[in-house]
Design goal:
This protein is α/β, with parallel strands linked by helices. Helix content is about 30%, strand content about 20%. The strands form four sheets. It has a seven-stranded mixed beta sheet with strand order 7-6-8-5-9-10-11, sandwiched between helices. Strands 15-16-20-17-18-19 form a six-stranded mixed beta sheet, with helices on both faces. A four-stranded parallel beta sheet has the order 2-1-3-4, sandwiched between helices. The chain is globular and about 65 Å long.
Length: about 525
Amino acid sequence: MQNNESVSLPEDFHGVHIHFVGIKGTGMAALVEILFHKGAVITGSDVSERFYTDEVLEKLGLHAVEFGAENITDDVQYVIYSSAYKLDKNPDLIEAVRRGVPCLLYTQALGSYSSRAYSCGVSGVHGKTSTTGLAGTILKEIDLPSQVLAGSVINSFGGTCTYTAPSVASENTADAGRSVFVAETCEYQRHFMSFFPQKIILTSVESDHEDYYPTYEDIRNAFVDFVCKLPQGGEVIYCADDKGACETVKLALEKRADIAAIPYGEKAVAVGGGDFTVKFGKVENERNCFTLGLFAEKGEFALSMPGRHEVLDAAAAVALVCRLLVAYGKNPLDYYENIKAGLLKFSGGKRRSEIVGRFTNKNGAEVIVLDDYGHHPTAVKTTLEGYREFYKGRKIIIDFMSHTYSRTQALLNEFARCFTAADEVILHKIYSSARENPADFDITGHTLYEAVLATGQKNVHYYEEILDAADFAKAELEKPLGTEYPDGYLFVTMGAGDNWKLGKEMCKAAGGRC
């Protein structure tokens, strides 16, 4: 078996042939974009089923082929592979190992790439993708040489997962090592420990991925270790409103007093940092208004995204951009209008409060069909509360599919209480992970349904299979609305599973009016 721990990517990618195994994975497709813009020759293999990342690849003129040893030709110089595939199981990887072609796990490749730039890792249990997308959208308005890699398609990136500044794409920067690289980093199995950060955003820390981190302390300690990867004088930008993030930073500073801790959020000023203190403003005309301490005299910022959690993500992104401007000898106050414009141009991404359709029902009421990836009870609760505030005049129906048996079992009480902002709740079977055996758990989707009912919440419905709920959902969306819902319906599919199909079905039932 090949030892790939010491393998690293080349300094110059021009003409280097890299083959991606599992190329349709979101992170993999994003890295393909990054290396493509650096001049690499890309090929890749995956399953034949079509994913939204196929469109990302096709924009680059790339198409995935099916797995096979014949994909590893004499021209292939490196192989990057998804953690879903094993060196001794996948035919592409078996052949690459036989030929002695250097093979890197995705996270290792991302880490290797990060080591040669001024890299910033966006981390946390919640909000990583939105925060990364927000940072990239602001950087598009700023004169810094930057590349950004998000964990999903970002609308403001032009429907891709990455942003590459023209100066980086053409390599006109005087010092390539000073170009900025901002990337979403994953805590699962400590994957982010392969990353080489100069700055870190820490949005939140709480129990998750219970199959790998059985206790809160386990996952917290992983984040502590990641923060401690910062170089001397490195900066961690953390959410002062999140208890776990505050505790993590405190423990990291006990080990590394040289690290600079920069808080953001409502409580930022209380812990000694007022520059990124958030003051929430009005929510009207489907906009979230807020101010940040550093720019308070300049005026408000606005975000066309629902939820206070999105404002906090925006504050984190602004804080990162400001600290990057300082690192480049620039005054952030000179960039207020640029930052303001960037925030307004952010409209989310794939499966992140994504509006997948709008139609008018037979009674003349507007229905917005929205899809979101939220799969942790805290994310579900805060996102729904954000929708309730943002879409004040709409009746909210949520269809939720829990992801992984281990998470559902460990956080059952939290899940049972996370839907209170919705008017109607539809639940399904648990969407299992390949790394779990359902027989090992004494829990089902119906267990969650019963737990929600036990809290006293009414209007909760259970359908084992996703599309079994279609007739019920259609009927609900055709009911006449009272005066408390003058704006119509908001139909939300939420979770890391495939219940997004129900939202598509609602659009289809509307006769293509989405």
